[in-house]
Specification:
The protein is an alpha+beta fold and about 750 residues long. The chain has 19 helices and 30 strands. A hairpin with a 4-residue loop joins strand 25 and strand 26. Bound molecules: ligand MTE, hypoxanthine and dioxothiomolybdenum(VI) ion.
Length: about 750
């Protein structure tokens, strides 16, 4: 089955915000944003900008009639800065003009004066100064204090991972059109139409029913448009509402890179204790999350770090403490994995550190401590259908680890400067939003008189293939050709109160809602067919490949005719449904419960070659066995896994975000920020499906796939370290990612870097 957007995409026919034909008279907005990271605004003079030719309006916080507030979890972020600024890139004014360049040039005429203050950029410094977004979070299982005495070895250290730019191909953007009766229709590149609707209504002091939000598709989101598409939509809405004309804004790439949030950087402390026979008895970790200047989604991201602090391992005594630290950088936000990868990097660092000190292979520790059904996670959930060991063993059936080890050792003993290395990486990822209320979705299924079907759900298509999966759901339930099924835009008037398409649960939640709506319609149609075909009440009626089958015998009624007749018999051919994930619960005071409907598991093996003269490296091979459940579409799922793995490897290796001491982003273009290209993909790339697996908790036995495989990328970091240690086993290398070429080189030839501690 072809992924139905692809031919359109490659032909350049798919529409994104900037491709939509706008009404005549549409105005263009540009943002005037803070050039400094922290300070009080003592003067703001917009008069020269207002007087520019072609400028219609310059809007500041004073022009907001409702709440100047966009914070979701914590109400701590203004749409337009009023008295002070907290990061470089914080929006202060919106210039609206006949065209974008006029608006942008007029923005340069805005005069501003600040009383500058010293910014905080480091999360540990923020924590020391009491700059926390929320109180510290503590997750505890067993008692670590009592366990240290029983350990044969205890290892402590620091692990740090960096930010990551989403680099969705389509930058942030929105168009707002005034509608009759002082309402607005907003077209937004957002993962969360309802967040756009709610925040805009609040900013404009309007009821939500005055705001309609419509989304066709996104040119990628990766979490960057879960929360942070909202302000741009709210800004064009504010302008359109004030001026009463359509207003459009699409961020230029460099501006998008400068002012939008990225993956959270973390600095963390770990302490791990093991017995001689490599059982992990105790683990403590303190996570210093760099949240940036406002909460955004940071508390939820931190919660996922905490729930993923022990990755795929059972550890009987755990204490994890998380600090969400307020700094003067653009608020960091959701990014594929949502804090999980950051937590998992720390436990992997601890295990590799312990293995080095014990003189054993890290994979021995990893395998020995894998989760089994019945084990308890630090947050109280019990492992069910635990496939960690199954995936690991399946990988070992395909590749003999001792042979890989030998092949690499043989190579390294012959090769002076090119050294190969490898690492294994098991993953375990919890599926569900950690905030229970978000685990709901809706669907509206319309069958038209001609037998064609139109489906609206809460899901946003952003390249992950959710629309195709939803088409498969209708195809399967009605047993009709998939060409009959169309997915409509995601629209707040057709499916209200939507959760963002995020947490990898888009297909799970909306697929289920679609299934429920389709079943309602199917039952109605079968009841009607019984009457129409004058069947006995206990006859068995089915639709199979568009034919109506009565007691295993094909009738002369087909789908098209059935629908035609149903319409003339006044049968309701439209059904709505709502799905809410059952059973999940979580007590945020005790940090215990069952937050996840289920978990996704898998194991990866990554091999690399490092040039120990130059510090460069290549990813030679990635082999993965992943539990996809019963995949709805293998092509899409494999594509998701491969894309996520490359994104994860790149986060751990080549993608490095740097700020200067004034909090200004230095890596704000593709000339200074390296992203994976086609030549970065592993030379050997083998993603295998764990076969004969079922998932009772999701649609047709499938499993969420959007985020989990990203975390195999962590293996690349340790594979590179492994290669470096083959060159010189005495090198002390900080557990600090990304492992850029520069860091490899300085690890090889320079003394140990200093890492800041408390
Ligand atoms: N794949 C593509 N091509 N583009 C994207 O923006 N986002 C990822 C993942 N895969 C993304 C993607 C993220 S962060 C999530 S949470 C999931 O898709 C969301 O979609 P799903 O819930 O339908 O899997
Ligand atoms: N994942 C993604 N987005 C979210 C989550 C989550 O667990 N919780 C709240 N928003
Ligand atoms: Mo994905 S980070 O949950 O949008």
């Amino acid at each position: 089955m072809k992924y139905y957007d692809t031919s359109q995409h490659v032909a350049g026919k798919s529409q994104f915000i900037d491709d939509i034909t706008v009404p005549e008279g549409t105005l263009y907005a540009a943002i005037y944003y803070s050039p400094i990271a922290k300070g009080k605004i003592i003067k703001l003079d917009i008069s020269d900008a207002v007087n520019c030719n072609g400028v219609c309006a310059v809007l500041t916080s004073k022009d907001i009639d409702g709440a100047n507030q966009i914070g979701g979890i914590v109400q701590d972020e203004e749409l337009l800065a009023s008295n002070e600024v907290d990061f470089v890139g914080q929006p202060i004014a919106i210039v609206v003009a006949d065209d974008y360049l006029t608006a942008k040039n007029a923005a340069k005429k805005i005069e501003i004066q600040f009383k500058e203050e010293t910014p905080i950029l480091d999360p540990r410094e923020a924590q020391r100064k009491g700059e926390l977004i929320i109180p510290p979070m503590v997750f505890e299982l067993g008692k670590t204090e009592n366990a240290w005495g029983e350990c044969d070895i205890i290892v402590e250290g620091i692990a740090e991972s960096g930010a990551q730019e989403h680099l969705y191909l389509e930058t942030q953007g929105a168009i707002a059109n005034p509608t009759e009766g002082r309402g607005l229709k907003i077209i937004s590149s957002t993962q969360s139409p309802t967040a756009v609707q709610r925040v805009t209504a609040n900013v404009l002091n309007l009821p939500m029913h005055k705001i309609e939000v419509d989304v066709m598709r996104l040119g990628g989101g990766f979490g960057g448009k879960e929360d942070q598409a909202t302000p741009y939509a709210a800004m064009v809405a504010l302008a359109a509402h004030k001026i009463n004309k359509p207003v459009k804004m699409v961020l230029p790439r460099q501006e998008d890179m400068r002012i939008t949030g990225k993956r959270h950087p973390y600095s963390s402390d770990y302490k791990i204790g093991l017995t001689k026979d490599l059982k992990i008895l105790a683990y403590e970790a303190s996570f210093y999350q760099n949240a940036g200047a406002a909460a955004d989604l940071s508390p939820a991201v931190l919660q996922r770090t905490m729930t993923h602090a022990t990755n795929s391992y059972f550890i009987p005594n755990v204490k994890a403490t998380g600090y969400s630290c307020r700094t003067n950088l653009p608020p960091f936000t959701a990014f594929r994995g949502f804090g999980g990868p950051q937590g998992m990097f720390v436990i992997e660092s601890a295990i590799h550190d312990a293995a080095k000190k014990l003189g054993v292979d890290p994979f021995e520790i990893q395998k020995k401590n894998l989760l089994k059904s019945g084990d308890e996670f630090p947050y109280g959930q019990i492992v069910e259908h635990g496939n960690a060991l199954k995936c690991w063993n399946n990988l070992e059936e395909n590749v003999e680890i001792s042979e890989v080890n030998k092949r690499i050792n043989d190579f390294n003993s012959e090769s002076k400067f090119i050294k190969k290395g490898f690492a294994l990486i098991p993953i375990c990822f919890g599926i569900s939003f950690t905030s229970k209320f978000m685990n709901q979705a809706g669907a509206l299924v319309n069958i038209y008189q001609d037998g064609s079907i139109g489906i609206s759900t809460a899901a946003i298509e952003m390249g992950q293939g959710v629309n195709t999966k939803i088409r498969h759901v209708a195809e399967k339930i009605f047993s009709v050709d998939i060409s009959r099924v169309k997915i409509e835009t995601t629209n707040t008037t057709r499916v209200p109160n939507t959760s963002p398409t995020a947490a990898s649960s888009g297909a799970d939640l909306n697929g289920k809602a679609t299934e429920l709506a389709c079943v309602k319609l199917l039952n109605r149609l079968i009841d009607f067919a019984k009457i129409e075909l004058s069947c006995d009440n206990d006859s068995k009626i089915e639709i199979v490949k568009e034919k109506i089958i009565v007691d295993e015998v094909e009738s002369d009624l087909d789908w098209k005719e059935l629908i035609h007749r149903a319409y003339f018999n006044r049968i309701n051919l439209s059904a709505q449904s709502h799905f809410a994930t059952p059973e999940i619960h979580f007590d945020t005071k005790k940090n215990k419960g069952k937050p996840f409907a289920y978990h996704s598991y898998g194991t990866g093996l990554i091999e690399v070659s490092v040039d120990c003269l130059r510090g460069t490296y290549e990813i030679d091979s990635v082999k993965v066995v992943h539990d996809f459940g019963k995949s709805i579409n293998r092509v899409i799922d494999k594509g998701q896994a491969e894309g996520a793995i490359i994104q994860g490897i790149a986060w751990m290796t080549i993608e490095e975000i740097l700020y200067d001491e004034q909090g200004k982003l230095m890596t704000d273009a593709l000339s200074t920020y390296k992203i994976p290209g086609i030549h970065f993909t592993p030379k050997e790339f083998d993603v295998k499906f764990l076969e004969n697996t079922e998932n009772p908790f999701s649609v047709f036995g499938s499993k969420a796939i959007g985020e989990p495989p990203l975390m195999y990328g962590i293996g690349a970091y340790f594979a590179i370290r492994n290669a470096i240690h083959s060159f010189n086993s005495n090198l002390e290398i900080d557990y600090k990612a990304p492992m850029t070429n520069e860091r490899v080189f300085t690890s090889l030839y320079k003394p140990k870097e200093k890492v800041k501690t408390n």
